[in-house]
Amino acid sequence: MSLFVVSRRKIVYQQGSLGASQVVYVPSTDQVQVLKDSSGAATPVRAASAKAVSRQGPALYRALKGQRVVYGHLPLDLRERRERLKVWLAEDLVLQDSDAFFYVFSPQVVVHGVRERTDEGKLEWRTAQLMLPEKGEELKPFETALADFMFANQDLKVCVAVVSEIKLFRAVQALTAPLGLTPVPFSTLKPMPSVPPLYSHYNFTWVNILVMAIGVLGVVGMASIYILKQTQAAQLEREITQIESQIQSVQINPRVGHIRQAAAVLAEFVTPFSVSPTSLISAAGEPFIAFGQIRDIKLGSIAAERIQQLGTTLEPGQIAAEINLTEATDLLLADQEARAKMMLTSHPWVRKVIRHGTTGSDMGMIVILQPLPTEPTAGGAAQ
Description:
Elements: E1 2-7, E2 10-15, E3 21-26, E4 33-36, H1 50-56, E5 59-64, E6 67-73, H2 76-79, E7 85-89, E8 100-104, E9 110-117, E10 123-129, H3 140-152, E11 158-162, H4 166-176, E12 184-185, E13 199-201, H5 205-252, H6 262-270, H7 277-285, E14 293-299, H8 301-309, E15 319-326, H9 333-346, E16 350-359, E17 362-369, E18 381-382
Parallel strand pairs: 1-3, 3-7, 8-11, 11-12, 16-18
Antiparallel strand pairs: 1-2, 4-6, 5-6, 7-13, 8-9, 9-10, 14-15, 15-17, 16-17
């Protein structure tokens, strides 16, 4: 913990520079102002103007029994420290049963206080910084002042406290031993719990960093949301454009606009068969009457797609047909194959027969038809 002593409106002693700080404030007589306050509320003492506050620093005050006592202002150098800081009067730290004290911070800085009775019969502390030579390491001036005080006030209990410097502490200990005094480390002096500090502020660095981090995250989050919204809006615009194009296509050709692959359907319509459809239906259906009752016969691209799905390709001039039967005559696979071989032998325009989708008595077949050769040849194969 850092230690500062403020006297005569300036910092006269400093020990340490990092971490939390404790300030011992020694006001001069002309600095102390007593203000009447009938409520006794510890409201802040405001300066006459903002310029006064910036020039003098925050006011150091304490409310005491209907009065507000202003002891002075904190130096700006201390006000600007970001670490935790508390300001106390010198008498706030003295031992409870002491009537006087000497705080030795260095051979040049010694704070002295004595409790006296005022004209009104009240006990009040009178504190001051001893006027000692500004140079030198000798404690002779302090020894003389302490001896004179003890000689004049032999019935008072005196507290002598020294900062935590071994060399200085031992020197003061040697000087006070003949007077019957035992110095104590200044770090052991603590204020009364009921006594508030004249001024305090805390280190809000991490709070500020946290607030800044939250702010940055908020900005990043808002930017991400904005980018996401823009992306979604662009995607919606593309979808709207696509739908508008589809609507225009439907409006241009209303007859086929509702068909997904209208171009393919139109191409199928305009593609003629090499022979008449009646002849194709007869050529595809007549050989399979013996297999069962024919439900339907499909020609063209539907049958060609099914051929591709089964891994077979059509040669030039060949035509595919899909025949679906109900109540098949033969349910056994061996009987169906035997009937198919007989059919291929007697119907040379049937190149190939592929069975598919057999369910119970229903049976589907793909038939590949070829032009009838000029001379009869042996039949094809059945699968």
